[in-house]
């Protein structure tokens, strides 16, 4: 057969069927790159698609249409195209594939150029190279993700596959869908309060319901939650509602992981404002002002938290892509709406539902829920959407609650999840990946490829009756050769070795990258089986496995340490401390997304791992007081308390105050002395108290926060009094003296005790 002659009619038929059904179709051109581009040019010449509606996603500008590299695929978010062609010859980034798939409009065509499908999994490119973290090399990266991708391409309807090397059509992709039924245009609610134009701009009844849900925000202590898969118009509905609110003279604060995530919201809000106010409305991509005095303004999440009081209504778009801690901070707003994608690469709505909805329910907000089901960009049942959900596991989820409700540490089986086993068992893969999605606010399709192909990653799980109830993802780190360690020490960066990199480059320990470790990248337990010790049981089994020297075969000499790093909160620090992980470092800058300082913790296994831990724990305790009054002067007092309590009690220098210093401390506690005269000995005493965490000292939470804010962080008396609700700075000063009394009783030497005896009864 003449493939060039036959591919064009096939592409026309696919495109025509897609237009009739208002769905998308997909065409895979498998063969040499030159043949693929020859056929693609013929197809584009033959299709009734304007060049402005076509985009090539590939490394070279080889066609007359718009061209984007895969790394820049995010530029297509919030836009639509009639045809998108993806060049997968040199590499295929799963994230990019997900983004471009969502940008193909109803009636459009997604074209994928690949090598022959049989050999494609063995091709390595830039993405595969990113998985070859030291000490691994490119040959260690596998092709399991692509093998699974090829399997899904061949299994799903609506996907045509042409083998260009054999001039053969494997599948025509035609589905002969039933004719679409005409639908009535949506109508606004009879009792609506927003302008009629806001509802007339809706494309589906779901969108009308979503806009109407925002009307509930006219009351106090209200929240709205919009949930939808991609392409359902939730951001558009939020934009129409925001425009209606601003047209009424109110101020709307919009936040999202990035400004691009809110682009559709601002487009729809701006269009509504211009329709109703014309040139009187000022419309920009980040700020809209109405003649009525209202406004819509975008701010990054951290900045939004600081300006909540200035807004009448807050809208959070792509909420599932934000950390739970950030969402909790945003709940301080009186009236707030959360719009979130249920299945998508920006974040998993299921994680939002499970991890944040409990916090929302505990708040004082009355919640209005709305779920958008009907697609807008394409008709329901779109085969390309169905394929993308399966191929990229966008809809992966843990087992249903009833299957794991009875799970306990006594009923579960500990298992190493081999990548080949995950590839062979789709249910096991979906359950494990579904739990990993819940473990982090931004799990992406790239993470699926890492799980299947990255040589430095392994997974462990607890299974209850064969179903995944708890899972941990582990990264091999360290064990680097001397030349690499020297390069890191001199300022070079090494991928995939987060803990050794920080300990070497920032903390100036060239030997830190020599011991071999396993970092717990993510850990999650099914929400239906939490608070039963399953997460701790999984960590215990992991530690026992590696301590026994039965870990991964690439480390025949065993593992020296286990570790983890995360945004520090009191709850997380307490969890890891209970599992014998100890803090050795806290970052000096906040994470841009979470707004939290990151804590690094180690659990030594071997003597070499113990030596690594001990010296870094010692250094951390020695520098913490200075950090507290400098880079960490805004660290939350409860986090500071939890950080120090999660340090090994043997770490740091012994408390050695001179007789004079003890008299200063005891004088402030029991006599007329003043803290302000010499804060130094107070800081050493307070750090030692928190690290020791002695049962013999009884201080209240308020007193401990006082020690952190005034003694360690050096906040002014007035600031501390205001934060801790003391009546005056003087009362705050007296409270600090009272808090120091039990510390003098517990640690004080002769000079301090003499002061206590002299003034104690006064």
TrEMBL record:
TmcA/NAT10 N-terminal domain boundaries: 6-163
Listed GO MF terms: 18S rRNA cytidine N-acetyltransferase activity; ATP binding; mRNA N-acetyltransferase activity; tRNA binding; tRNA cytidine N4-acetyltransferase activity
Group of enzyme by EC: transferase
Catalytic activity: a cytidine in mRNA + acetyl-CoA + ATP + H2O = an N(4)-acetylcytidine in mRNA + ADP + phosphate + CoA + H(+); cytidine(34) in elongator tRNA(Met) + acetyl-CoA + ATP + H2O = N(4)-acetylcytidine(34) in elongator tRNA(Met) + ADP + phosphate + CoA + H(+); a cytidine in RNA + acetyl-CoA + ATP + H2O = an N(4)-acetylcytidine in RNA + ADP + phosphate + CoA + H(+); a cytidine in tRNA + acetyl-CoA + ATP + H2O = an N(4)-acetylcytidine in tRNA + ADP + phosphate + CoA + H(+)
Residue ranges occupied by any N-acetyltransferase domain in the UniProt entry: 434-544, 556-605
Binding site for acetyl-CoA: 523-525
GO annotations of cellular component type: cytoplasm
The keyword Acyltransferase is annotated on this UniProt entry: yes
E.C. number(s) listed in UniProt: 2.3.1.193
Region (Disordered) residue spans: 173-192
Domain of life: Archaea
Stated family: Belongs to the TmcA family.
PANTHER family linked: N-ACETYLTRANSFERASE 10 (PTHR10925), RNA CYTIDINE ACETYLTRANSFERASE (PTHR10925:SF5)
Function, as annotated: Catalyzes the formation of N(4)-acetylcytidine (ac(4)C) at the wobble position of tRNA(Met), by using acetyl-CoA as an acetyl donor and ATP (or GTP).
Protein name: tRNA(Met) cytidine acetyltransferase TmcA
Origin organism lineage: Archaea, Methanobacteriati, Methanobacteriota, Stenosarchaea group, Halobacteria
């Amino acid at each position: 057969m003449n493939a060039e002659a036959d591919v064009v009619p096939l592409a026309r038929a696919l495109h025509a069927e897609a237009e009739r059904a208002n769905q998308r179709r997909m065409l895979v051109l498998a063969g040499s790159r030159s043949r693929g581009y020859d056929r693609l040019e013929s197809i584009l010449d033959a299709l009734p698609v304007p060049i402005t509606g076509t985009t090539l996603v590939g490394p070279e500008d080889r066609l007359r249409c718009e061209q984007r590299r895969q790394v820049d695929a995010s530029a297509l978010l919030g836009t639509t195209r009639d045809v998108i062609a993806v060049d997968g010859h040199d590499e295929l980034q799963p994230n990019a594939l997900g983004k471009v798939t969502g940008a193909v409009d109803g009636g459009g065509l997604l074209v994928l150029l690949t090598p022959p499908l049989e050999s494609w999994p063995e091709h390595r490119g830039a993405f595969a190279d990113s998985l070859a973290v030291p000490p691994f090399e490119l040959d260690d990266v596998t092709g399991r993700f692509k093998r699974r991708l090829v399997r899904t391409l061949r299994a799903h309807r609506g996907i045509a596959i042409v083998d260009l090397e054999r001039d053969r059509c494997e599948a025509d992709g035609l589905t002969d869908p039933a004719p679409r039924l005409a639908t009535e245009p949506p109508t606004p609610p009879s009792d609506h309060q927003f302008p009629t134009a806001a509802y007339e701009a809706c494309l589906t009844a779901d969108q009308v319901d979503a806009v109407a849900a925002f009307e509930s925000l006219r009351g106090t202590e209200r929240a709205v939650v919009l949930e939808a898969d991609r392409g359902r118009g939730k951001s558009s509905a939020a934009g129409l509602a925001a425009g209606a609110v601003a047209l009424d003279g109110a101020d709307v604060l919009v936040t999202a992981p990035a400004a691009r995530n809110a682009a559709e919201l601002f487009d729809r809000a701006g269009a509504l404002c211009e329709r109703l106010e014309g040139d009187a409305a000022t419309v920009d991509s980040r700020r809209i002002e109405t003649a009525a005095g209202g406004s819509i303004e975008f701010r990054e999440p951290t900045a939004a938290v600081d300006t909540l009081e200035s807004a009448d209504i807050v809208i959070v778009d792509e909420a599932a892509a934000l950390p739970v801690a950030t969402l909790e901070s945003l709940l301080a707003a009186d009236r707030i709406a959360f719009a979130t994608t249920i299945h998508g690469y920006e974040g998993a709505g299921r994680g939002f539902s499970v991890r944040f909805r409990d916090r929302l329910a505990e708040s004082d907000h009355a919640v209005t829920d709305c779920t958008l089901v009907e697609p807008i960009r394409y008709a329901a049942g779109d085969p390309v959407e169905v394929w993308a959900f399966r191929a990229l596991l966008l809809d992966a989820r843990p087992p249903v609650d009833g299957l794991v409700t009875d799970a306990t540490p006594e009923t579960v089986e500990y298992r190493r999840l081999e990548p080949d086993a995950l590839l062979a068992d789709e249910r096991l893969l979906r359950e494990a990946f579904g739990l990993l999605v819940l473990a982090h606010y931004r799990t992406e399709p790239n993470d699926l490829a890492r799980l299947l192909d990255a040589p430095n990653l392994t997974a462990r799980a607890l299974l209850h009756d064969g179903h995944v109830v708890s899972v941990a993802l582990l990264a091999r780190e360290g064990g680097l050769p001397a030349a690499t360690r020297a390069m890191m020490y001199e300022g070079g960066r090494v991928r995939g070795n987060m803990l050794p990199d920080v300990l070497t480059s920032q903390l100036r320990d060239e030997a830190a990258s020599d011991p071999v470790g396993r970092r717990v990248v993510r850990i999650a337990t099914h929400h239906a089986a939490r608070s039963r010790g399953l997460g701790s049981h999984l960590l215990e089994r992991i530690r026992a496995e590696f301590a026994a020297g039965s870990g991964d075969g690439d480390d025949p000499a065993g593992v020296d340490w286990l570790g983890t790093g995360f945004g520090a909160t009191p709850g997380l620090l307490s969890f890891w401390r209970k599992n014998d992980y100890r803090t050795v470092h806290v970052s000096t800058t906040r994470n841009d997304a979470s707004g939290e300082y990151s804590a690094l913790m180690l659990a030594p296994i071997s003597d070499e791992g113990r030596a690594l831990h001990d010296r870094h724990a010692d250094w951390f305790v020695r520098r913490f007081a200075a950090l507290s009054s400098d880079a960490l002067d805004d660290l939350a007092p409860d986090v500071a308390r939890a950080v120090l309590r999660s340090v090994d009690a043997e770490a740091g220098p012994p408390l050695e105050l001179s007789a004079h210093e003890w008299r200063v401390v005891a004088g402030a506690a029991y006599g007329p002395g003043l803290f302000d005269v010499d804060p130094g000995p107070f800081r050493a005493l307070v750090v030692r108290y928190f690290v020791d965490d002695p049962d013999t000292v009884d201080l209240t939470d308020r007193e401990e926060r006082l020690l952190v804010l005034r003694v360690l962080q050096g906040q002014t008396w007035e600031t501390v009094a205001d934060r801790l609700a003391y009546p005056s700075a003087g009362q705050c000063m007296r409270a600090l003296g009272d808090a120091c009394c039990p510390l003098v009783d517990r640690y004080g030497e002769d000079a301090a005790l003499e002061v206590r005896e002299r003034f104690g009864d006064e």
